[in-house]
Amino acid sequence: MCLNAQNQSLEMAIDKEYMMQIKEEHLIATQNRKIIKELYDISYIYHAAIKEISTKLEILNNEFQSIHEQNPIHNLKNRVKTPKSTVDKLIRKGFEVNLESARQKLDDIAGIRIICPYIEDIYTVKNMLEVQDDIEVVRITDYIKNPKPNGYRSLHLIIKVPVFFSDHKEFVKVEVQIRTIAMDFWASLEHQLRYKAKSTQVPQATSAALKECADTIAQTDIRMQDIHNHVIQ
Ligand code: GTP
Ligand code: MG
Known about the structure:
Beta Polymerase, domain 2, single chain, alpha+beta, 5-stranded mixed sheet, 18% strand, binds magnesium ion
């Protein structure tokens, strides 16, 4: 083959590969558009699950206040994961990118964060949730007894709650994170800093400093609990 013909066939091969890449990207974009629309359409289910648990928690908190004159819950935050973050997470975790897979594989499309004044309140809230006979606790991860290597502390529960619709009942998974005000202070700032650092690696010295802060905060949480127990005796 002459040099010209060789160049031409190379160009054609590159063109073909380029076209295939474009087609593939287009296909992915179309599929993603489909699942993003489907996720938007079902987001009301997750909002409903959050509403049910929030109402339950409010009732339990009021009952506790009335009996013990103290609130185990300082405040609640909640969110439904955006369809885009949901798709990003499916891709990141190597799961199939479709609605079924999102609903089955992801535990945190609906999330509630319960912020408590003291460490013991966290377990009070956990116990109150566990004894509700319409809530199924799927998994508990105790990052307070076993903090993450970076110092992160919280109690995580994956629960299933029944949501009632006009013609059926559905059990919906919700991720519940329970932590003290102090743990939340650390986790919020650590998250922001990690996000700001953007590059995947936070410098070693920064990680070590953050870990030290987490441990100091944990000691303070224990002291505050002791002071509280002493005062209410
Ligand atoms: P993913 O849900 O895929 O992230 O992993 P997982 O199922 O192992 O969940 P894990 O319990 O580790 O974390 C779930 C959530 O807890 C995260 O989305 C965060 O909100 C929070 N979290 C976990 N680890 C950290 C951490 O090191 N720092 C902060 N700020 N938040 C964390
Ligand atoms: Mg999770």
